[in-house]
Each structure stands twice: as structure tokens, then as C-alpha cells.
Design goal:
Blueprint lengths: L22 H4 L27 H25 L9 H25 L8 H29 L14 H8 L1 H12 L10 H19 L6
Helix pairs in contact: 2-3, 3-4, 4-6, 4-7
Organism: Drosophila sechellia
Protein name: GM14654
Pfam family, one: Rost
């Protein structure tokens, strides 16, 4: 079944598929946390038949390589003395690269370790928070850009104008690719995990306030 709803966490694993929680259980305070009884759910696809899948491993590296290459290329092309990092879009795009590459590395380690190997709890918690922040932020950025900014930023005199390739790569592909990815992975989602992308946005807001308060200017 699709992984848009969180799953129950029975004492014994029931495979890659989990039953959805009731709304009442989903909204319990403890769901704010990042504990999950089966850390290997973050290293599998809900559609694979066995505990490990070479196809899922290849897919993870394809996704990580795609966004990793995009981040490296975008920074090298538009670094502009560090001004690259004053825009929320670029924060989100870097997070796309970091999250997808981290996922690929974790699945690779799991693939070559014994099936009893369990990833460090702290690493899985950070990855889970980044994953949900990434997919939420990608959708927020895309919606804001295509409804409020495009096509005004595409004029040739705009100093922050990027190529059509990177415009699509940063503003359109992340929400599409990571929404599809969310249908593929075996990890649960939590409604209350909205606090993590919200914290990310607050962090950017504080950065923006300090940036302008200290004399920084938009381009």
C-alpha cells in the first residue's frame, strides 16, 4: 500500500508494509519524535520482495547522483561570491542533494552488511527529519515560485537569473521526484513531523533577518 500514511509499529516486524494509524493515534504527542522500531525500513522499498534489493540500491544512487550532480553544478555555476546561499530555493536544493546522497550511502552499507545489521539510531533520526523536511520544502518552494515569482525572474536583466536547465532542476523536479520517492520507500511518514520543515523555515527566516540587519542586500 502507498506510504503516504504512517504505519503501526507492532512488536514483531510484519514485513515492508504497515497498517495506517488512526488519526487519533497519528496526532499523539509521541509521534513528534523520530523513533521507529524497525530502522531497516529506511533502507528498503516497500515494493521489494526480499530484505535487500539491487534494483532499489541502483535507484537510490541514480537519485542521489542526479541531485548531487545538480547541486555541485549549480554551486559552481552560480556561487557568485557566496550569494548563492542567500536564497531559500538554494537551501532547499542543497538539502535535496544531501538527503538523496545520504539515502544512497545508507542503502549501500546495508546492502553489503549482514541482514542483522542495524544502522545507528541517531543517523536514522537525522535522515528521517531531513527526508520529511526535504519533500515538504521542495513542494513549498515549487508552489511559491510558480505562483508568485515566475515569469518575472526570467527577464534577461535579472542578476539572479539561472539557465532554463537549472530553473527546472531546482524549482520543478524536486517535488516531482521526491513525491514519487515517497511512494517507493518503506519508511513511515508522520503528520506531526511538519515541525521539522517548519523549524527549517524559521532557521532560514532568522538567517534572512540577520543578513539584512547586518547590511546584506538582495541582488
Amino acid at each position: 500500500m502507498f506510504r503516504l500514511l504512517a504505519g503501526t509499529e507492532p512488536e514483531l516486524s510484519s514485513g515492508n508494509l504497515q497498517e495506517p494509524l488512526s488519526l487519533r493515534d497519528e496526532l499523539r504527542f509521541r509521534r513528534l519524535g523520530l523513533h521507529h522500531h524497525f530502522p531497516t525500513d529506511f533502507l528498503r522499498s516497500q515494493w521489494q520482495s526480499g530484505p535487500k534489493s539491487s534494483i532499489f540500491l541502483a535507484y537510490r544512487w541514480a537519485l542521489g547522483g542526479f541531485f548531487g550532480a545538480g547541486v555541485v553544478g549549480c554551486i559552481s555555476e552560480y556561487y557568485n561570491n557566496g550569494n548563492f546561499f542567500i536564497f531559500l530555493t538554494n537551501w532547499g536544493f542543497v538539502l535535496c542533494g544531501v538527503t538523496s546522497i545520504t539515502g544512497a550511502i545508507l542503502v549501500t552499507i546495508y546492502h553489503f552488511k549482514p541482514e542483522t545489521w542495524v544502522p545507528p539510531s541517531c543517523l536514522i533520526k537525522v535522515y528521517w527529519a531531513c527526508y520529511w523536511t526535504n519533500i515538504t520544502l521542495a513542494c513549498v518552494i515549487a508552489f511559491a515560485y510558480w505562483t508568485a515569482i515566475y515569469p518575472k525572474d526570467r527577464v534577461l536583466t535579472n542578476p539572479t537569473r539561472v539557465s532554463d536547465l537549472y530553473n527546472i532542476w531546482t524549482h520543478l523536479l524536486p517535488p516531482i521526484f521526491f513525491t514519487i520517492d515517497n511512494f517507493l520507500v518503506a519508511q513511515p511518514a508522520r503528520l506531526l513531523h511538519f515541525v521539522y520543515p517548519l523549524a527549517f523555515l524559521h532557521t532560514y527566516g532568522i538567517f534572512a533577518i540577520l543578513f539584512y540587519a547586518l547590511g546584506g542586500r538582495n541582488l
